[in-house]
Amino acid sequence: ATSATPRQRLATPGPTHPNTTSLLPSRWRGAAAVAAAAVGVALASSSSSVEPGPWETGLSAAEVLSSPAWPAAFPLTATHLARLDETPDTRFYARPRINVQHVDESAIAALQELYAQELPRGGAVLDLMSSWTSHLAEGRGRDRADGHFARVSGLGAHAEELRANPALHDYHAHDINADPRLPMYADESFDAVVCSVSVDYLADPLPVFREIHRVLKPGGPALFTWSNRMFPTKAIAAWREASEPARLWICGAYFHYSVPGGFTPPEGVDLSPHAGRSDPVYAVSARKLAGPGGGANAKSEL
After folding, report:
1. d(Cα 142, Cα 164) in Å, to the nearest integer?
2. What's the rounded Cα separation, in Å, for the pair 140 and 167?
3. Where residue 101 falls among pLDDT bands split at 50, 70, 90?
4. Which of 8, 106, 169, 188 meets the CB 3.0–4.6 Å disulfide criterion with 278?
């Protein structure tokens, strides 16, 4: 059978997966048993303090952003955005995690296929919250020497990881939760922005999405992807406790509330490659509108 394209999968309800899987590699799990138990206790004790929000609609991942009923005001409170570990991210990410994969091979292949289709060849791409890999396919930007993109700039927490990423033409080590501003990038300097498996760690998402809007060229896409793996102590409470379809609503809300009228309506897709047999993959995207009420032809094409 011919595999479905990302656009075809948009109309197909995705599989159901456990909400959260720890990112600890198997070789670390024995040594981290005590720490993992402590995290489990903390997760359990925190669950009753976070009220569910309007993101729990009961709809599938393929449907949840089809016609969302957005509240008048941004619905995520300080409690929803709180993390179990509020120490500086620079401390948590002090040790580089080079060659640690955050999703399995099937999920990586799904990300590569999506990026090959959606990111503009020859364009300038910002890889936000980047690491040692940008999940780009061979010949499609995996190595900057392949010439697929004019520029891929990485912004992430650890300089050593960014230096090890062969896709990047340039990079900046920057704690985006400590300072969401991106003064190193000029207005309208990127044709696309991508963020892989990291949106769940944004503790103050709206200023970050305003900066995404600022650095994007009109019509340029911003594309966020993730799975159900995470460092649970660094993920925001609402994301940890949300169902998987609800996480698409939360990410879509970041677009909707950050720059009202500044993005096309966010669209979501379930790209999970093998239901129950591999890591799930989800994506939410929108495009920058040319101006308030303008850019009607700039439609997200996931």
Report:
1. 12
2. 10
3. confident
4. 106
pLDDT in tens, 8-49: 333 233 333 445 554 544 333 333 333 333 444 344 444 446
What does the pLDDT look like over 164-214, one tens digit per residue? 999 999 999 999 999 999 999 999 999 999 999 999 999 999 999 999 999
Q: What is the dihedral of CA 111, 53, 276, 43, to 10 degrees?
A: 100
Cβ pair 115, 136 in contact under 8 A: yes
Give the C-alpha separation, 284 to 249, whole Å.
9
Residue 111 neighbours by CB under 8 Å, 6+ apart: 103, 135, 196, 225, 271, 281
The DSSP bridge pattern shows strands 229-230 and 21-22 to be parallel
Report residue 283: phi and psi, to 5°. -140, 145
Within 13 Å and on the Cβ side, how many CA atoms surround 265? 8
Query: Rounded to whole angstroms, what are the CA distances from 155 to 93, 185, 293?
Result: 14, 10, 30
- What's the CA gap between 151 and 5, in Å, rounded? 26
* pLDDT for 21: 53
List beta partners, residue 282.
226, 270
